[in-house]
Structures are given as structure tokens and as C-alpha cells.
Design goal:
The protein is of the alpha/beta class. Helix content is 30%, strand content 25%. Helix 2 packs across helix 3 and helix 7 packs across helix 8. The termini are far apart. The relative contact order is 0.09.
Length: 503
């Protein structure tokens, strides 16, 4: 079995079912598979070999997912690039990945022309759009010149399928190499954990260069013969319009996206079609979950998903029936994965004690591309070390406490920012919040709250501190407060606390 066959099988079973909706375009599974095969056969004609990287710089769009499956069917390694990256960051990914094939949207032509003289490894350039320079292959023309039968390539589950560069909060991105086996097991885990059903219409609002949007949301929908509605950019009003127009049943997004949707005036859109929400990247507060049940009146469940790029990405999923009952919980580990909570010497900790979450299973990456040292560190002892601090209850449910590097040590006491952030989210005037540690000559570090207030609201530093003090041990309360218009986030929606600390 390989990832490309997921589309092949679905197209054979449901050829006329709508696979993709993007803006005014609709595409059936039969047409989707035919175009994927044309691209795959064209790439093979150019000499694409198993294991070679196919780099992509595109917004969410139909060509992006065509390239995903064409790469999978040929043995190529799909390598998406963050469209928010600067010119130098794009150059780094292309150079580091050793990509020989590079497909990009015409909106990125100026950026590509700047770095093209330095790209010694890229041999074939493809542009998607009307105007294509003479030395660049036109994507649509290239497809029309290629055959549409299934590519004749024999693949193994251990073959590499994706090179996903981490949206890390520090340093240069690392490329996690994911195999067909990794992706297939992640698919099983996600389908079971999120209780997926055949034929749902899912709105993909996250960027498809990220594993959550790509592997959990999009690939799952193809495997379950559903319809994926792709959105080029996240805009809360546009998202609500699409939900109403396309009668979307499932929506997946980071908490920040849900908060923006909830900030819109009530009752403007018909949202009765939504029956399921899934969320990840950070904890979705119970108060937000309760507000979502009002925004989506027929909502039958919210699923909290915890994972990381290196796990393809699912590690734990909190099912809908436990969503409100298990506060600040990410659920038990997904079915085909072992999870442990350990100390700094990788020794197991008792129930409810905080330590690092490590995991082992067939969805864990092969390793980091061209980085043996980082691979050894991340996979030491055969277990993926997530860098996340967590605890586990008697039933095996996992509670993410914080990132190991974000923990604040003040006066010898360990303070976990997420605990304080949860309190701040419960305040009716607070829209968004982050807690960081700042240098303190007496205590080593002190707690600072960085807060985004809801539109039209005001609040003083004293009010914030008193509110936290009434809900937390005194040593955990913020010593200072900084009000900002928005919080810097990485593409997966996680707050960039390194940026806040630098500021």
C-alpha cells in the first residue's frame, strides 16, 4: 500500500463524487485522479527518480494537492514551502532539500527570479498561471502533453513520501522525512481517533504546507471519499460565507482561527450544516468550546488533536464525548502509538507527575533530512522526544502542561505558562493571551502577561493581576502586563514566545 493508492481507490469507487472545491472550481474524483496521473507521468518522462524532492511554493489550491498525489504515485518526495517565507528562507529550503523539481505560482515569479541564479540543484521549473517565461515549463500545458493512465512505479511502505520542514519557533527549520508507512498509520490513527465518516464536506483553512492541514484534514477526507473545500487565505468572514454556501459539515482549525470567527457579529451566516469541529496547535479553552456550540447550533462534537510534524502529526486525540469533561486535555494516545511521561533521564514518572512526553510508533518520522545529530537527539532510545511537558491521569488521558523551553523558573518554583493562559482566556474581556518569563534580578525570572483585549474593551494591569491572583497561587500570578494588538504566531498557530521575549 502507498499514499497514491488512496486517491486511486477512491476515484474508482466514487468517480463522479466531488473531491475538491476551490473558489468557483469543482472537480470530481475521476477528474482529480486523471490530472494527478498526467502530472505523475510527465514527471517520470522528465526522469524523476524515487526519493527525489518535488518542491512546491503555492497557496492552498487544487494544483498543490495534485502535486502531492503525483509525487506520491511516482516515488517523489513532496516538499511544500511556507508561502510566508522570505526570499532567503525559500532559497534555504530549496537548497537544503536538494530539490530537482520546483513548481510555483506565478505570484512568486519575482521571488524565484531573484534566487534562481543561486539554485544549482533545481533542474526543472514549473509555473502555474497565464504568463510563463520561455525557460519555465507551463503547468497546464505540461499536463495536457502527458498520459493519464496509472503510473507504473513499484513502491514500498518504507519509501520516503514527504519532506515537511518544521515551523519551529527557533533556529532554521528542520526537514522531517515521512514515509508512506508513516502517513498510512497516521491516517488510521486520525480516522479512528476523530471518528471520521464517509462523505463529509470539510473546510480546509490551515495552510497545506503544514502536516495538520495536509495529512490530518485533507488526506483523511480523500480516504473517506469526502469533499475538501480549499481556502486560499484564512479570513473569518470569507470562511463563514463558504460554510453557508457549500454546506460544510466539518471544520478544522487552530484556536486562533475559532477566536476570530467568534469575534464576528452573531446571526449573519447560516452555520447549521456544521456538525464537527477539530482543533489543534494549542489548547481550545472550555469557554470557547461552549461559545462554538452557539455559533454552530447543530454541532455534535469537538475533537482536540495533539501532535507534531515528526509524528506525521497525530499523537493524542480527545473525542467529542470527553471534550468538556476533561478540561485542558488532549485525550489518550492514538490507537497505534505508545506514549510515556519521563524525567530528564528518560525514566517513567508516576501518574499526574509532569515530565517530557515521548512516543514510539509507525507514524514517527524516519528522521531529519541531512541532520544525523538532530535525529539522534530527537529519536534517542527509539522514542520521539517531543519537547512538550505533560502529565497523565489514571485513565491514560494526557494533559499538555507546556513546552519544555517555555517553563518559567521563578524563585526556584516551576511555573507553567499554559496554566495562567487558561485563566486569562476565561476573562470575558480577553481575546488572546500569552505568558512569558522575563529576567528578574531577584527571582531569576518573573511572569509577564501579554494580552490582546476584545474589540472596544479596556483593562488595567492591576485588574489582570488581581484576576489571576483570585484563581492561582500567588507566586504564579503575572508581575507585569503588556497589552498588544495581536500575538505573533507561526504557521501552525502557535504563539512565537521567542519573538515576545526578544521584544
Amino acid at each position: 500500500m502507498d499514499v497514491g493508492q488512496i486517491l486511486t481507490f477512491t476515484a474508482r469507487k466514487f468517480p463522479q463524487r466531488i473531491a475538491l472545491i476551490f473558489e468557483q472550481e469543482r472537480m470530481t474524483y475521476q477528474e482529480f485522479n486523471r490530472r494527478v496521473n498526467q502530472l505523475a507521468n510527465g514527471l517520470l518522462r522528465l526522469g524523476l527518480k524515487k526519493g527525489e524532492k518535488v518542491a512546491v511554493l503555492l497557496f492552498n489550491s487544487i494544483p498543490l494537492v495534485e502535486i502531492l498525489f503525483a509525487s506520491a504515485k511516482t516515488g517523489g518526495v513532496f516538499t511544500p514551502i511556507n508561502f510566508r517565507f522570505t526570499t532567503e528562507e525559500v532559497f534555504y529550503i530549496l537548497d537544503h532539500s536538494d530539490a530537482r523539481f520546483f513548481i510555483y505560482g506565478e505570484g512568486f515569479s519575482e521571488l524565484v527570479e531573484k534566487i534562481r541564479p543561486r539554485l544549482k540543484k533545481v533542474e526543472f521549473y514549473f509555473s502555474i498561471g497565464e504568463s510563463t517565461p520561455p525557460s519555465i515549463l507551463n503547468y497546464e500545458t505540461f499536463l495536457k502533453e502527458s498520459l493519464s493512465q496509472e503510473p507504473d512505479v513499484h513502491l514500498f511502505e518504507k519509501d520516503e513520501c514527504q519532506l515537511m520542514y518544521t515551523s519551529g519557533t527557533t533556529g532554521k527549520p528542520k526537514g522531517a522525512l515521512l514515509t508512506h508507512e508513516n502517513l498510512l498509520w497516521n491516517l488510521f490513527n486520525t480516522i479512528l481517533g476523530r471518528e471520521e465518516k464517509e462523505g463529509d464536506t470539510s473546510l480546509v483553512i490551515g495552510p497545506l504546507y503544514h502536516t495538520a492541514a495536509l495529512n490530518n484534514h485533507f488526506l483523511t477526507r480523500v480516504a473517506m471519499a469526502g469533499t475538501s473545500v480549499l481556502v486560499k487565505h484564512f479570513d473569518p468572514e470569507r470562511v463563514m460565507e463558504v460554510i453557508e454556501k457549500e454546506k460544510v459539515t466539518v471544520i478544522s482549525g487552530a484556536p486562533a482561527a475559532y477566536h476570530l470567527m467568534l469575534s464576528l457579529p452573531n446571526g449573519r451566516y447560516d452555520t447549521r450544516s456544521i456538525v464537527k469541529c477539530t482543533t489543534g496547535a494549542s489548547i481550545l479553552p472550555n469557554e470557547t468550546k461552549e461559545r462554538l456550540t452557539k455559533l454552530f447550533p447543530n454541532l455534535s462534537g469537538i475533537y482536540d488533536v495533539y501532535g507534531c510534524t515528526e509524528a506525521t502529526p497525530s499523537i493524542a486525540i480527545l473525542k467529542a464525548k470527553d471534550s468538556l469533561k476533561k478540561k485542558e486535555c488532549v485525550g489518550p494516545a492514538v490507537p497505534f502509538l505508545e506514549v510515556r511521561i519521563v524525567d530528564d533521564q528518560d525514566r517513567d514518572l508516576p501518574v499526574r507527575e509532569v515530565g517530557e512526553l515521548i512516543c514510539r510508533g509507525p507514524n514517527v518520522m524516519k528522521g531529519y533530512y541531512k541532520d544525523e545529530e538532530a535525529t539522534r537527539e530527537a529519536l534517542r532510545g527509539g522514542w520521539l522526544h517531543t519537547g512538550d511537558l505533560a502529565r497523565m491521569d489514571e485513565e491514560g488521558f494526557i494533559y499538555i502542561v507546556d513546552r519544555k523551553k517555555d517553563m518559567i523558573v521563578s524563585g526556584g518554583e516551576n511555573i507553567y505558562p499554559r496554566e495562567i493562559e487558561e485563566i486569562l482566556y476565561s476573562h470575558p474581556r480577553v481575546e488572546d493571551a500569552a505568558i512569558i518569563g522575563i529576567p528578574d534580578p531577584l527571582w531569576g525570572e518573573s511572569v509577564r502577561a501579554v494580552i490582546v483585549l476584545k474589540r472596544g474593551e479596556t483593562m488595567t494591569e492591576e485588574e489582570v493581576i488581581e484576576y489571576c491572583k483570585s484563581h492561582l497561587a500567588s507566586y504564579k500570578k503575572p508581575k507585569s502586563v503588556w497589552f498588544v494588538e495581536n500575538l505573533p504566531r507561526n504557521p501552525s498557530g502557535k504563539v512565537l514566545k521567542t519573538v515576545l521575549r526578544k521584544r
